[in-house]
Specification:
It is built from four helices and 20 strands. The chain is about 5% helix and about 25% strand. It folds into two domains: about 5-315, no CATH class; about 320-365, no CATH class. It holds the Pfam family DUF1996.
């Protein structure tokens, strides 16, 4: 991706776009797109958006939700990604990496807690490669995914990482950084923006979409092909994983110790999207040039203090954080691939006493 600062400097203000923070809604093993109805799903997700989120979600999500963790008060969509874990190089224990708000270029995070930043872009941010192709909003019931946890060794265009150091994001890379990052790891996921115009979903949750990204997410977007002729807004997630607390436990010269919650490496990064804007609100945003990232007079915004009060219940009831300060009687949460009750291979949990690993109670991992 071209530097966002550079891209925004080049964009004509007549183009509409949205950029806004969403606080964390919940962190659970639920995936109503890939594994609808499963309690739990095979791996842990970090979820933001509307409180209609559940193990199964059909129809108009926006009509069922009553609150959202997103700044745009009419957006009851749900957005989610896998969760990042630190795998201790010495004892093999796993510890969930917290999320911190993205500090955006425009306006700050306005009090978001955790969460991620969401984009809906109308045109290429540097030039109009789309030839003013009309933007069609998503329909109720629409959902899609990008990336694949089963393809961890295959980098996907538009799915990138950056090593945050001070005020710099650093270059975009397809793998995890190979050294500790003083500001955390910045992850970006760009979704396809060309739809077949018929299917709200597909068996693989991707075939109903066509990815026009040739190289980067915010640039080089050609017109949609005849097979997928409908141009929809390009959805993008940005997440900051606060890996800084683990930097001192990453021995110099050793491989990156971070893994996704499906026990996957960097190439398996993926994200899910379920549309849930109220009524014609997204259409109004995409049709009006007054909507330019964090400013949009036609769309209602809410204070993040209000958004932060939106919650959903814990459907699964699992401890996914592990034990930060070990004690002979305090279990450490280990994850491993194994068979679960229905015969699937999945990331499952086992607890051992810290004493089994010779760990003391001095607060070290």
């Amino acid at each position: 991706m071209k530097s966002l600062a550079t891209a925004l400097a080049l964009i004509a203000p007549a183009y509409a776009g949205l950029r806004f923070p969403c606080s964390t809604l919940t962190i659970q093993r639920l995936d109503p797109v890939v594994q609808p109805g499963s309690l739990p799903s095979s791996h842990l997700h970090h979820i933001v958006g509307g409180n209609a989120f559940n193990a199964s979600m059909e129809g108009d999500v926006g009509e069922r939700a009553t609150c959202t963790t997103c700044q745009m008060a009419e957006d009851f969509s749900n957005y989610w990604t896998a969760v990042l874990y630190f795998k201790h190089p010495q004892n093999g224990s796993y510890h969930r990496v917290p999320v911190v708000p993205v500090q955006p270029l425009l306006g700050g995070s306005q009090g978001a807690t955790g969460g991620l930043t969401v984009y809906y872009t109308q045109f290429d941010l540097s030039r109009d490669n789309l030839k003013q192709q009309a933007i069609t909003p998503f329909k109720p019931g629409f959902r899609m995914t990008v990336g694949a946890p089963t393809e961890a060794g295959k980098p996907h265009v538009g799915l990138r990482y950056q090593c945050l150091t001070g005020q710099s994001r650093g270059p975009e890379i397809s793998d995890f950084p190979d050294k500790p990052c003083t500001g955390g790891i910045f992850a970006t996921q760009h979704f396809p923006a060309c739809w077949d115009g018929v299917n709200l979903d597909s068996p693989d949750h991707q075939s109903h979409m066509y990815n026009t990204i040739n190289r980067d997410g915010f640039t080089n977007a050609p017109a949609c092909p005849a097979s997928h002729p409908i141009r929809v807004p390009q959805v993008t997630f940005e997440t900051v994983w606060d890996t800084t607390q683990f930097n001192s436990m990453w021995p110099s010269g050793t491989p990156n110790p971070f893994v996704w919650s499906f026990e996957g490496k960097a190439g398996g990064t993926h994200a899910d999207y379920m549309f849930g804007w109220k009524g014609d609100s997204l259409q109004r945003a995409m049709a009006k040039s007054e909507c330019f990232y964090d400013g949009c007079g036609s769309i209602t915004k809410q204070a993040m203090t209000t958004a932060n009060r939106c919650t959903v219940k814990d459907f699964v009831g699992e401890n996914m954080d592990g034990c930060k300060f070990v004690h002979p009687h305090c279990p450490i949460c280990f994850f491993f691939w194994g068979r679960v009750a229905d015969g699937r291979d999945a990331l499952v949990t086992k607890w051992w006493a810290a004493a089994e690993f010779g760990l003391d109670n001095d607060g070290d991992y």
